[in-house]
Amino acid sequence: MKQFFLCCCLLLLISGCSTVSLDEDIGLGGVTPEAVVESFLEDFNTALADPALSEPTARQVWANRLASYFAPSERADQRLVMREMFDSFARNNLQPVRGSKAEVVITYDRTRANRIDEMTALVEVVNGVMTVRWRDAAGNVVFERSGALLRLIGREANGLPVIRVDGRWYLTEAG
Amino acid sequence: MQPLELQIDHRVVVAGTTLAESARTLVVTPAPQQLAAAARGQLFVLCEPIGPAERAEHACRVVTQRIRQVFYESDATSVASALRLAIVAANKALYQDNMRCAPAHRMTVGVTAIARLDGDLFIAQVQPAQVFLRCCNKLRAIPPHPSWEPGQVNAAQLALSGALGASLFVEPEFFRAVLQPGDAVLLSNSDLITRFDSPTMAALLAQTDVAAILDAVQSRIDQLAEIELLAFTVHAAASRAASLPQAEHRHQFFQRPNHKPVQSVASPETKPDPLFTLPSQPTYSSNPSPRPAPIDLGESLAERVAQQQMPLPPSSMLGENPPSAPPIDLGDTFTDARPYGLRRPLRPPETLTLLERLSWPLLVVSDLIREWRRERVLRRKALTVSSYVPRGRGLTYRRTAPPFPWSLIVVTILVVGIAILYGINLSQQNNLQLATEYLVAAEERVAAVRTAPDETAAREALIIAQQAIETARTSPEITTTNPGLWLRFSELEREYERLLAAVDRISFLEPVLLATHPLPNGVFSSVIVPPATSSVTDTARLTALRYLYALDSDPNAARLYRILRDGGAPEPYLEPGQIVGAAVVGSLRAALWRIDQVVAIDQASNGFGYYFRQNDTWNYSKLGGSEIWINPERLDVEEYAGNLYVWGVQPGEVLKFSSGRYGDTPEFWLNPSVTRDAAVLSAIDMAVDGSIYLLQKNGTVLVFSFGQQVGQITPRNVSPPIVEVTRFVITGPPDAGYIFMLEPVNERILQIDKRTGELIQQLRIRHGNDLSLNQLTALSIDPSSARPILYIASGGDIMRAELPPPPRSFREEALR
Question: What is the complex's ipTM, to 2 decimals?
Answer without folding.
Answer: 0.81
